[in-house]
Structure formats: C-alpha cells, structure tokens
Write a structure and sequence with these properties.
heterodimer; A: mainly alpha; Serine Threonine Protein Phosphatase 5, Tetratricopeptide repeat; two-stranded antiparallel ribbon; 6 strands; globular; B: mainly beta; Ferric Hydroxamate Uptake Protein, Chain A, domain 1; 22-stranded antiparallel β-barrel; 10 helices
C-alpha cells in the first residue's frame, strides 16, 4: 500500500530525470537564454533612465524608476533586488548546464562545446551586469545550496572580472562563428569577443570609485585587437538605413552581433519594451490595448537638442508630441524606437521585436575609441564616425576626439541602454550628469550625482539574509 | 398476561408547557409507534409494564413505563443544555458529560429557521475559539475559518471538515481571498445540518492526525427517525443592500483638488506661466494639450454645461432580491429511515450584475437489514452559480467605481469610455464600471456530488465492524469574456476554466463498546485511505472577431500561457486507534494514536505518528459534592496531543522544472523549448507539528440553568513549513523548509444561562475567546520574513517575538506644516511642506525603510459573540451580536484612493477635503498635500486602520403559527419570522468596506462590502 504514496508530479517535470542527454541540455541552455529576457528592461531602468537620456522625475505617482532617475534610490528599491536576483537566477541556469554536462551525456563534442560556450557566454554577460551595477559580488561558479550560499561573501571587482574574462575567452574558443536557420540568435564566438572588448574598455577608463567597475587598466589594445578580429571576420555588414536595423521584419540582420530574441503571440516570450517607453494615452490613441500606461518616461530635452538638424535618428528614435484619443495635441517626448503599432501581440506586454545587446555599429565605434587611446590613425577614426553620421543624414566631420565620439554614441544608441555605462567607463558620469541636471531638472527633485552613485546599493533583502555577510556599497 | 388496552395522553414541553405535535411515541422493543397530533395528544394500545419511548427533535428522549393509569401527561425537556446530549467525535460518539477534550458545539436546532446562505455563515459568532471571517461580501463566496489563532505561516490554516464521517479535502484560502480550488462548504445547504462540532484541542482532533492541526469541524446532517412521516416547507424572501458606502470627494470637491494640482503643474517651474492663465492661453503657451496643466473651462460655467457629475458608488450598488425555498420529508419505520430534501436559493448581489444561485438535494437513507447488519446511503448533489463579472479586488470594478473620476461628458453619460464614446479628457483610463459589469461575463458554476455508502456489522455484543466508501466530486466551470466595446475597441478576450476535484475515501473501523460493572470501555481501531485528484483545464483567447460570441471559437488567437491542462494528486494512508475508559462516570481517560503516510512528504519523511491523551474528573460524582445542591455539573479536563498540518501543496518536496522557452531562428523566429529548475528540492520536507495542552472546566449550576465552560490552552506549532528567504546567489530567493515555531495561547469562555423559564423564556449564550500569537523561531538566522505588495517595501513582518504577519510600516506623526518644519525635521530626501512627517524610529537622522516599526497585528486578540433568545406565547426573538478587537487592517486599497501624488484623475477619500493646501491653510494636520511629491513614497501608518468592530449580526422576530394552522388538515405547525442581518454595528475602517476583507496578498484592495439584509420567512410543517 505504501507504494501508493510515491506520487510523481503529473504536470510538472522534475529535476530527478533531467540532464540526461543532448536534448535535455539543449533545453537547459535555452532556459539560460530565456534568462536574458529581463536584460533589456534592466538596462532601460538602470542605465537609460539613470542617464541624461531620459528625464523621469516622477509624476502622477512614484514608481520604482523615479528614484533611480533622481539619485535618491535606496537599498529597498525593487529594481535593485530584481537586477540582483534575475542575474543570479540566470547564472544558476548556466551553472546547471556547466556542472552537469559531460562527454557521456552529450557525446558529440561540437555540440557539447557549443552548449558549454553558450552557458559561459551568458554567465559572463550576467556577471558583467552585476559588476557594473553593484561592484564586487559573490562569485558563484557552481550550483550552491542554501547553507553554502550563506558563507560566500562578496568577491572583489578584480575576481569577478577574472571570471568574466575567463568565461568569455573560453566561449570564444568553444562557440561557432555563426549559425544558420533555426539556430540563428545563439551566441557566436564574435559575440563573446565583442562583449570581452566591451569589458576591457570598461576596465580601462579613469577610476572615480575604488570599488567600481572601472580600473584604469589601459587594456585598449586588447579591446582593439578583439574588435578588429570581428571587423575582419566579414560576418557583419554595416546597414546603410538606420530604421532597417530595428525593423520587425529584419531581425538578426547583418548588423546584429548579439540580440535578445523576442516573439509576440501570447507565448510568454514577448518583450514589454515598447510599452515601457510610451505612455498609455499614446497607446490608446493608436488602439493598442492598455489598462494603465507607463506614463511620464520622458526623453530628455538635452538628448533631443543633441541631434543636429536633419538627423534621421531623432525622428526615428523619439516621438515629439502626439495627438491623444480625445484629439488633443500632447507636447511630450517619448522613445518609440522599438514600436510598430501594428505589431502588438496579445497585450501591451507582448511585442516581438528583438533587443540589441551588441550591434556592429557599436563594434566599429568601440574600435574607433580604442584607436584614439592607442594612438591609431585619426583618419580611420573619422571614417568610422562619418560612416555612422552619413547614415544618419549628417555631414562628415574631422578630428573626432573622445568627447565627440561619446556624443555620437549617445545619438546612435539612444534607448538601447548603453548611455549610463558609457558615462561611467569614460569617467564622465559625475560631470555630465550634474551639468545636465542643472539645466533640465526643472522640478528640482534630483540629488547631485556623486562618485558613489556609480554603483547601486546591494538589495536590502540580500543584506537581511545574514547580517554582516555582504557589505553595503558606500553612499547607501 | 394482560391484553393490550388503550392508553392516551398528551406531550408537553417541560418548561413552558406548550403542546408538542409530532412527537414520536413507540413501544420499546417493537416497531409499534405513532406521532402526537397538533395538540400533542396521542392514543394507542399498550400493555401495562410496557415501556413507551418518546423522541422528539431537540428534546431529550424519555422513557415511561405504562402503569394502570390510562391517561398520562409526559413532559419533555429541551436537550440543548442537557449533558446527555451526544456529541459526534472522530470515529464515534460520546456523551457530552464524558468528553475530555475541547469541543465547541453549534446549536444547529434553529438553523433552518434563519435565512442563511452558507454553512460558514451560520458559524459566525457562535463558538468560542472559532473565528469565522467573512472576507468578502460577494454572494456565494466562502468564509475563512481559524480555530485557535493562526498556527501556520505558509501552509494552510483552514480546518479539516468532516461531513457525516467523511473527511473532505482541506482547501486553502489563497492570498487573494477566495478558494481557487473550491471550499469544502461550497453548495452545502445549511438546512440539512443537524449539528456542528469543532474539535479544538489536539486530544480531540489528533485522531485525524496530519490534517488536524487547524482543528476539525464535524458536521452531521439530518436523518430520518422512525415514526410518522414529516414534511417541512421553508421559504424566505427579502432584499439586501450595501452595509457601507465610502466617503469620497464629490465632483465639486474633486474639481477643487484637480485645479490645485493643475495650477501647480502649470506654474512650476516658473516659465512665465501664471495660475490666472485661462485654458486657451495655457494651451498656447504649452504648445499643445496637457490635462495635467490645463483645466476644463466648463467646470466654472454655471450648471457645468456638457458635463455630468456622477457618484459611481450609487450607480454600482443596488438592492438585491433574495429568495429561497426548501422542502424536506423524513420518517421511516424500525427497518428503514429516510430524509430527503431539496432547496433553491436565489440571491442578487448588492452590486449590479452579481448574484448567487443554488440548487441542492440530499437523501439520507438507512436500512436495518437485520439485527446485525445496517446499511446506509447518503447522497447530496448540488449545483451553484456565482455571477461576478469582476467586482472585487485590485483593478476590479468596485475599486474602479470608488476611484473613478466623478465627472463624465453629458453626451455619453454613464457610457463613458465605451466604444465609440471617448472618455472624459481629465478622467483616468477607466471605462464606465457600470458598462464593464454589464458587458463583461464572469460566471462560475459548480456541480458537486457528495456521496457516502456505509455498512456495519455487529460481530458480537459490543463489537462492530464498519466500512464506508465516500466520494466528493466537484465539477467547476468558469467562463469569462470581455468584449471590445469596453476595451477601447481592441478585440475581445475570453477565457474558460474548468476543474474536477475528486476525493475518494475508504475507511474501515472496528469499534468496541462495553460496560463491565463500573467500567465503561469504548475502543476503536481503523484504517483509512484518502485520495484526491485535481484536474484543471484552461483556455484563454483573444482577438475575438465579434462581441456577439463569448465562446472561445470566436477568438482568433489562443493565449498559450493561459491555455493548458494540469493535474495533481495526493494520497494519504492512515492507521488509527483510540481507547476511552470511564470509571463510574467519574474518572475519564482517553488515548488515541494515528499514523499517517502522505504523498506530500519528502522521501525521508513519509510517515508521521500523532498521539494524544486526555483525562477528566467529574467532581460532581464524588460523595462530598452531594451536599452542594446548587452544583449540577463540575468537571475538570486536561489533555495533551500532537497533530499535524499536511496542507503544504502536493509536490513541494520535489525539485520541479518549469518551462522557460526562448525564441530562435530566422524571420520572427520560432519558439524553442527550455526547462530549468524552479525550486530547491527538499527530501526531508514533512508536516507541520502542532502540540497542544489544554485544561478545562465545566460548571453547571442550578440544574444547569447556568452552564460555564472554560478552557486554557497552549498550542505550539513547530517544524513550520517556511518559505525562508535565502541568498539569491543560489538562483532562488526562497526555499521551503520545516523550521519555524509559533505559539498560540489563550483562553475560551462559553456561558449559557436560562435567565427566565416558564411562559416568558430568556436564554443567553455568550462566547469569548482570547488568543495571542507569537513567533518563536524562523529560518537559520531568524531572518524576518517581510512581505506585502507594492511600493518597494513590505508592510507585513513575521519576526521572532511578534505575531505572524505583524504590520511593519513607518509611523506617520502628522504632516510637515511649514517649510521651516520641513527644514528642521528629519525627512525622506525630497520631502517638503505639506508632506507627511515620520517618526525617525532608529534615530539615525534619515527617514527610510529602516524606520519601519511594528504597529499591530492582523489577527484579533479577542473574538466574541452573544446570542439572546426570548420566547413568549408563541413569539420568539433573538439577537446575535458579535465582534472582535485587538487587530488592525492595512488598506492597500488606500494606494488607490488615499495616496499622495495620485495625480488628477482618480478620486480620493473624503478626508482629502481637509488636506494641506498651504502653510496658511494646513488642513487638519493629518492629510498631506495633493500636489505632486518629490520623494520616494514609503508605506506609512496612514493606511493602517483599527479592525475592531461589533455588529448586530442577526436579529430575528418569529411567531409560532401552530395555533392558527392547527385546523388546517395535514398541517402540523408553522412559524413566520422577520429577520435582519448586519443592520447595526460599528467599525473604524474608513479606508475600505469590510474590516475582515482579504483579497490581495492578504490585504484589502477593493473588497466587496457586507450586505445588510431584511428578510421575511415562513416555515410550515406537515
């Protein structure tokens, strides 16, 4: 009779019979990719809104992202805990693959290498987020249980970078150069090299905060070489039409080095990004189903005025005023870069547009940046920047320097979640933000940016687990 | 040997001497019997020396030996105070006098004479230690019942229900209030209930082992009695309406507040914009329309042309008609007894387009095959329909109606926002709640069948084998549809959910009852097998091509995440035994043990053992008590026992995988399957343990005219199933573990008095219980568990030394009346004059989440009820007052209707009239400013309300129609009554409708108010 007590879950698969064969590992790797679905919103909230690209001081209520914008964020802000736990949940998914995979379970070496490389790539991407947002964090390379986790404290920034670099170097060895057909969208060795170049660039900038992600390590040459490999690979093509890069009908195009894949249709794999960026009244006027809007996420006037006249990127990226459902003109500015009003899925949170993590244009502009720092050819730098400007409908310029390059990056990558990271790694986060605030914070709600605010606070929920285990970041 | 000769007589009530019609009179040892007529008379043939047995529902059975006297008067004593009353305990019965555990009893005698829609409703305020919370006023919704406080943090807190010996699957109330898998009491007709007993302490309940920790509610349904066939017809009709309306700003007051915010937004920052600018000027200066900076010129025109001012609450509430019809017939012979009944209830809700209908049937038949074998069949099919298009909870229509802008365009009126009508430009996105309730479909239908078949076989004198087979099958179907016209023209969406829950129970017992001289022995041993299967199917669809079809064939897209079937199952196998021993009805001992094996437990912890012992001393039976005539009962009781709570979910112990899909491939890409772990497995997971000690005293005075029961208990719940916060670096934020400890202790008092007897009769039943709850241990570091929705901080804390889920918020200490005060006070960065002032609890000169303090608890410390019954010359009057105190309620609804910085559109509570407007006009010093805020909001004590209340729950006035009806052939008696529920009372909850509401993560976010009802009813017996 006792046998009747052994009831197995009927509708839920269980770990007991998993990680057995290639198919299981393929699903486990896919689940790790699924962990990237929060990547775009994380960078919208913690990078784009934090930066001078958006002015989100809080109107009609206080949302989690308002204090991020205002530099009044505290350790109990829900965006802190979701950033922390989403990254570590995805790391757990990667570690599940890495801890369990073996030659007897996945005998095909090419496949096994690919799975391993993908897991390491995604893990590195998560640690890179963690180190940039929180500094040195607990270093978890294998699955850990509850008890073990309680004695792992924060590693140093250097140790986290060691893991990131090791993972990305390994991924660059293990991953294929490209995929075709049904596998398009997976991480390639060039994605690994490109992210690694971004890691080196980040480490190389001037130090404003000793526990921060920037180390003044002067690794521009390492970054340059990696970026050159990508450029010379011939796998990527510069698309001459800005709008085409972000078209719903042109995903995983030749410009894309790595992007998070989304698909609408009520399958739980859509993105909320377009709706996060636009207000409910705009959505309603465009007959897009909306219960209540994510209003008041304004594009900053400063970003708008940074576009020279005729820059096609301004009209593509930003909507400057719109007519609401009652026929009234509303004079407010929002990002519409990823919106195609005809392409919503089952609801407001379900859009099929992929989100860029690393574009070829970024590879080129980072390469130009490394040239500036390593004494490369000014002409080469100017050519790259002018290629981007020409596409935007702007005249060519000469004598591009670090500042003009940064400004070009701002216009090019607006709404893509790069701006804050760019300000941090170039050492400009404090000066640029404070200058902008003085101009644009008409509501006078923002606190001055200081060096400590380069990092976010460790979530209070994590500090509470075992008091004393994690130190809080300075300034919080 | 004498020949039968005629004997006649009359049966009267011993106290008020009213005639008792329909009393069963039988000669003991034969099947000869009749019933008394409408005047209580009887006559038939009987020998002298024969024993006549008089039985009557609600009265004690009486035996009279026939003497030479040919005309006798028999007085029967009402049994409700009698110690000879028999209580149903687990797997047997026991004389109340001999009970050694803590058992509360509901006097169910008059249940069929009250207009009660659900059995749980009948339990409100009736039993000490049993808290019955009406968490929703929506028609047909289940109540939450807690016995002796909250014993669990994460596992269920609902008691086990046993109907006629059939232990039903324990259902847990969800955090959002309702019972998503049905409540055990759904569809049960209160008129079929003969008695309700609640086993409160572990010694009484431990015979139910791993399911008994939250108490056991034993329900016995009415059965037929040998004798005359009886028929009863009960009906009532009446109406109900809302008990409460929230005080919100009127349209004029809303305009006043909106204008204040609009002007503020317009002139700040100073860019040459003036508050005196009229709308046209503003539009020109702004370069476009912005409702947050431009007002509607019509507000200030006489008669506000083109606008209509609306009180949405008035539009949503209605007087709902309630009517009910019940018919039953019962009777039988010595061989066969039966009772059959049917009922129809139709209740319109107090909110438009809501309601509840129930059709239920029951047949209880018992067949005495011969002296040894007894067979029976109980069958109760029922059908209930709950109509709720979405009135209750966050973003549901009651919330919307309360918070909706009280102004609409006159041209569209209440159809605002309904396609093709635009909404009012200054209004929130809310589509007319009236139209949504009308157009939206939300209907739940439950067809439930409860069936038991049993047989017992007397092996030899005193030893009986009994086997029962029980089935409870619930088929539930919910259909929902939201058409395009209330969705801004976006295509309709619909869904369908069905589930079938089937519980099968087989129990086999061997029981032995024997008296040897002064020794009474009762023993029972048994085996039980329980299995519950739950199968669910959902379909969600969108992009309906038309509003005319609600079924899912009208949808052109299926929502995959809401389209699936699921199944789950659990098995419980048990062995149990109990011995009760009594010596001269004076020294009483009882011991029981149960061994439960459950599929829910981890591989290492499949089986648990649950023992209990109790003892009683009937001091009254001691010789020295004989001289104290006033004392009619004195008993001391004591018990210890261990029970369990296995309501921990079906597969919590197993490491489950969840689907975590991704998209890959060219073009739009295709879905690829992904799977990943969703929890941390725990092979040691087991039941929660509950150890109770109980000491009790029963005291009866003056022939039990005063009867008092007092119990003191300490209940220690250990190995609590806790979802403890774990370091997120594990990949998870919580893990389920048996670790916590919670103690409940308290006392219970039940007092019944018969204040007047005779022609004017007055009885009082009082119950009062006190419980304190304290968490003794949590996870490895006793990390507090902080929870509660919204706004970056939890507002509940479960922490060592405090009650479960205590409120944990910043303490509001008024407002910052002036800029000077703001500058000199400790504030949240960004706060300024007109914002709330908070206590710097940790004195670190910063106001932040670390300043949260514990302010009260969600469970009451005192719960009470008092019933008074009066009888005089056929009139009866009863009052039930009940209430609670010592607890608070946090209104997350306040986030919608009492929030700083809520903007222009939404309406606010009426207290916002007295808000801070300027330093010169600081309002009442409690309500902050309406203008936009510059600081990150934290949860404060402004939304925390005292949840104490008292309520005149029921008042009933009845008149016995027997005298009027006795001349109508076939009619035996009758009663007409008027009843009112919830007509009077007081609470302090101004932030919502119902101080007991739970509908959003354990809090109130727009609950349905309770109904106030007025009923006229009629009972007739034939």
């Amino acid at each position: 009779c006792t046998g009747k007590l052994d009831v197995k879950p009927i509708s839920d698969p269980s770990v007991v019979n998993f990680y057995r064969n290639q198919q299981d590992f393929e699903q486990a790797v896919n689940a790790a990719y699924n962990g990237l679905s929060t990547y775009p919103t994380r960078h919208l909230f913690l990078s784009e809104i934090r930066s001078d690209n958006m002015y989100v001081p809080g109107e009609g209520g206080t949302y989690d992202w308002n204090p991020v914008n205002n530099f009044t964020v505290n350790s109990s802000n829900a965006l802190m805990s979701s950033a922390w736990s989403d990254c570590y949940n995805t790391i757990m998914r990667c570690n599940s693959v890495l801890d369990n995979i073996s030659a007897d379970k996945v005998p095909d070496e090419t496949v096994r290498n690919q799975f391993t490389g993908e897991a390491k790539f995604i893990r590195a991407l998560m640690y890179f987020d963690l180190v940039r947002f929180f500094g040195g964090v607990p270093k978890i390379e294998h699955l850990v249980n509850v008890t073990a986790a309680q004695s792992i404290n924060r590693a140093s920034v250097q140790e986290i970078y060691d893991l990131i670099i090791a993972d990305l170097e390994s991924a660059a060895q293990l991953l294929p150069a490209s995929y075709s057909g049904a596998s398009k969208g997976r991480a390639t060795l060039y994605a690994a090299k490109g992210i690694l170049a971004r890691v080196y660039l980040t480490r190389s900038g001037p130090v404003l905060l000793d526990k921060g992600p920037v180390l003044n390590s002067n690794e521009y040459a390492k970054a340059r070489d990696l970026l050159l490999e990508i450029i010379n690979s011939g796998k990527y093509v510069f698309i001459n039409n800005y709008a085409q890069i972000f078209s719903y009908d042109n995903e995983n195009n030749s410009e894309s080095v790595f992007e998070v894949q989304f698909k609408s249709g009520g399958t739980g794999t859509g993105t909320v990004i377009p709706a996060e960026m636009l207000p409910g009244s705009y959505m309603r006027a465009n007959k897009i189903p909306v219960a209540s809007g994510n209003d008041f996420k304004y594009v900053s006037n400063d970003l708008i005025s940074s576009y020279p006249a005729g820059d096609v990127r301004l009209t593509f990226n930003v909507i400057q005023g719109f007519t609401d459902e009652n026929g009234n003109f509303v004079n407010q500015n929002y990002f519409k870069k990823f919106l195609d009003p005809k392409r919503y899925g089952v609801d407001l949170r379900d859009w099929g547009i992929n989100q860029p993590v690393l574009r070829y244009t970024d590879v080129l502009l980072m390469y130009a940046e490394t040239l500036l720092h390593t004494g490369g050819s000014q002409t080469a730098v100017d050519d790259i920047v002018n290629q981007v400007r020409t596409r935007a409908g702007l005249a060519a310029i000469t004598g591009v320097n670090a500042d003009t390059l940064l400004e070009e990056r701002r216009r090019e990558f607006a709404a893509e979640g790069l701006r804050w990271h760019d300000l941090v790694r170039t050492g400009k986060a404090v000066t640029v933000m404070n200058a902008w605030m003085a101009k644009e914070d008409e509501k006078k709600v923002m606190k001055p940016m200081k060096n400590e605010f380069i990092l976010y606070p460790v979530p209070q929920t994590e500090i509470n687990i075992k008091p004393g285990l994690y130190d809080q970041n300075a300034g919080y | 040997f004498q020949k039968d000769s005629r004997i006649s007589g009359q049966v009267l009530d011993e106290q008020d001497h009213t005639q008792l019609p329909g009393v069963n009179v039988r000669i003991k040892g034969s099947n000869k019997g009749i019933s008394t007529d409408a005047t209580g008379h009887f006559a038939f043939a009987a020998n002298a020396g024969a024993v006549l047995v008089f039985t009557y529902v609600g009265y004690e059975t009486k035996e009279v030996t026939v003497s030479d006297k040919r005309n006798i008067t028999v007085n029967l004593l009402k049994s409700n105070q009698g110690l000879n009353e028999v209580l149903v305990v687990g797997y047997g019965t026991q004389k109340k006098a001999n009970v050694t555990g803590a058992i509360a009893t509901l006097n169910a005698q008059h249940l069929d004479e009250r207009p009660i829609a659900r059995v749980d409703q009948a339990l409100v305020g009736q039993m000490a230690g049993v808290q019955v919370k009406q968490i929703s006023g929506a028609p047909g919704k289940g109540f939450q019942i807690k016995v002796r406080g909250t014993g669990s943090i994460n596992a269920g807190t609902e008691p086990l229900y046993v109907i006629d010996g059939f232990p039903l699957e324990v259902a847990s109330a969800s955090a959002s209030g309702g019972f998503s898998q049905g409540s055990a009491l759904d569809n049960i007709n209160p008129n079929d209930i003969a008695s309700v007993q609640v086993l409160k302490d572990a010694s009484a309940a431990a015979i139910y082992g791993s399911r008994a920790a939250n108490g056991v509610v034993i329900i016995t349904t009415k059965s037929g009695k040998a004798g005359r066939n009886r028929m009863e017809f009960n009906t009532y009709v009446g109406w109900q309406q809302t008990l409460k309306k929230l005080d919100m700003l009127s349209a004029e007051e809303w305009i006043d507040r909106a204008r204040e915010i609009i002007d503020y937004n317009y002139v700040n920052p100073a860019l040459g914009r003036l508050a005196t600018d009229d709308p046209a000027v503003r539009r020109q200066k702004l370069g476009g329309f912005d409702f947050s900076k431009i007002y509607d010129a019509r507000w200030y025109q006489p008669g506000h042309p083109g606008l209509r001012y609306v009180d949405w609450q008035d539009e949503l509430f209605q007087k709902g008609l309630v009517h009910s019809y019940q018919l039953s017939a019962s009777g039988g012979t010595d061989k066969v007894t039966y009772r059959i009944s049917g009922d129809y209830l139709n209740q319109d809700g107090i909110v438009i387009y809501t309601g509840y209908k129930r059709y239920s049937f029951r047949s209880n038949v018992n067949l005495k095959v011969n002296d040894r074998i007894n067979l029976g069949l109980n069958l109760a099919p029922s059908y209930g329909v709950v109509t709720d298009p979405g009135a209750e909870g966050k973003d549901a229509q009651l919330h919307k109606a309360v918070s909706a802008t009280p102004i609409v365009e006159d041209s569209v009126g209440l159809e605002t926002g309904v396609v093709p009508n635009a909404r009012y430009a200054w209004a929130s996105s809310t589509v007319s709640p009236v139209a949504v309730l009308r157009e939206q479909m939300g209907e739940e239908r439950t067809l439930r069948t409860l069936g038991s078949i049993y047989g017992d076989y007397k092996l030899f004198d005193g030893l009986v084998f009994k086997s029962t087979l029980n089935i409870d099958n619930a088929d539930y179907r919910r259909k929902a549809f939201s058409p395009s016209i209330i969705r801004n023209g976006n295509p309709g969406t619909g869904s369908s959910r069905t589930f079938r829950k089937t519980t099968l129970v087989n129990e086999n017992t061997l029981s032995y009852n024997k008296t040897f001289g002064s020794h009474d022995i009762a023993a029972v041993a048994g085996y039980s097998f329980n299995q519950t299967n739950f199968e669910e199917a959902r379909i969600g669809g969108s992009n309906y091509s038309t509003d005319d079809i609600y079924t899912l064939n009208g949808a052109t897209t299926l929502t995959l995440s809401d389209t699936y079937t699921r199944e789950t199952k659990n098995v419980l196998i048990s062995y149990f035994g109990r011995v009760q021993y009594g010596f001269r009805d004076k020294y009483l001992l009882s011991a029981s043990i149960r061994r439960d094996g459950s599929s829910r437990f981890g591989a290492n912890t499949k089986w648990g053992v649950f023992p209990a012992v109790s003892a009683g001393w009937r001091v009254l039976e001691e010789p020295f008590m004989k001289s104290i005539g006033a004392v009619s009962e004195l008993k001391l009781r004591g018990s210890w026992g261990l029970s369990g709570n296995n309501n921990i979910g079906d597969f919590s112990q197993i490491g489950l995988l969840g689907f975590s899909n991704y998209v890959l491939g060219t073009g739009e890409g295709a879905l690829v399957k992904g799977q990943t772990a969703t929890n941390i497995p725990n092979p040691d997971l087991g039941w929660e343990k509950s150890e109770t000690i109980d000491a009790g005293l029963d005291l009866g005075l003056f022939d039990n005219r005063i009867f008092l029961s007092f119990d003191y208990y300490r209940k220690l719940n250990t190995d609590l199933l806790l979802s403890i916060p774990v370091a997120a670096v594990t990949g998870f934020s919580t893990a389920i573990t048996n670790i916590g400890k919670v103690r409940n202790k308290g006392w219970e008092l039940e007092l019944s008095t018969r204040n007047f007897t005779g022609a004017f009769e007055w009885t009082t039943n009082l119950n009062l219980s006190h419980n304190t709850n304290k968490v003794l241990q949590l996870g490895p570091n006793n990390t507090p568990i902080i929870f509660g929705n919204f706004d970056n901080m939890g507002h509940h804390i479960t922490t060592v030394g405090q009650p479960i889920g205590a409120f944990y918020v910043l303490e509001n200490i008024g407002i910052l009346k002036t800029a000077a005060e703001a500058a000199s006070s400790t504030i949240i960065p960004g706060e300024e004059a007109g914002d709330p002032k908070y206590l710097d609890a940790n004195n670190d000169k910063v106001i932040d989440v670390k300043d949260a303090v514990i302010l009260g608890q969600p469970d009451p410390t005192y719960v009470w009820g008092i019933t008074n019954n009066f009888n005089y010359k056929g009139f009866d009057l009863s009052f039930l007052f009940q209430g609670q105190w010592g607890n608070k309620i946090y209104s997350t609804f306040g986030r919608a209707i009492d929030r700083q910085g809520s903007g222009i559109s939404d309406n606010s509570l009426g207290i916002w009239r007295d808000r801070w407007r300027s330093e010169a006009d600081p309002g009442n010093g409690i309500v902050p400013k309406a203008n936009p805020i510059k600081y990150g909001r934290l949860k404060d004590s402004r939304w925390l309300y005292n949840a104490s209340y008292f309520r005149l729950r029921t008042v009933t006035l009845g008149y016995n129609l027997s005298r009027l009806l006795k001349h109508i052939p076939g009619v035996n008696g009758g009663r007409i009554y008027m009843s009112a529920e919830n007509v009077w009372g007081k609470d302090h909850y101004n932030g919502g409708f119902n101080p007991e509401a739970i509908n959003d993560s354990g809090d109130d976010y727009g609950a349905f108010p309770l109904a106030k009802s007025y009923i006229l009813g009629l009972n007739i017996s034939f």
